[in-house]
From TrEMBL:
Keywords, alphabetical: Signal
Protein name as it appears in the record: Nuclear transport factor 2 family protein
Residues of the SnoaL-like domain: 38-137
Domain of life: Bacteria
Listed InterPro entries: NTF2-like_dom_sf, SnoaL-like
Signal peptide as annotated in the record: 1-22
Amino acid sequence: MKAIKLNMIAILFAATGITANAQTPEDNKKIISAGFERWAKGEGSFFDLLTDDVQWTINGSAPLSKTYNGKQQFLNEVINPLNERLSQKIVPTVRSLYAEGDTVIALIDGKATAKDGKSYNMSYAWFMQMKDGKIVHVDAFLDGIQFADIFKRIRAGN
């Protein structure tokens, strides 16, 4: 009888997609919050939370708006080129975090200084899908005009 009950529980978990590594919304929110705290303190990269095969979509009509398939593509085509244009890296301030199911939504402000001395102040909304404590998919929203402007205004490596 005990074996039947255990088998039924295993079937229920399999049918609902729940695994032993499943995170609660609160767990996911804490992971994301800790990632932003480390980033704000300059301790490592928030993007360490991404899986290697993450899909990161920048929504909108800016030149960099598209889906990036994989962490390396996203870093190589967006994050690294952006950082090359900054004299001071972005420091994030989290306005709010929401978690439901496997999704964490972050509303954040990022402040930095561009290499031409102008401020780079951006607000972001990131909808992050989590799996086993890592980010597997992101839908990102930002000011596409300002984002494109820093790429147009400052050449990489200058």
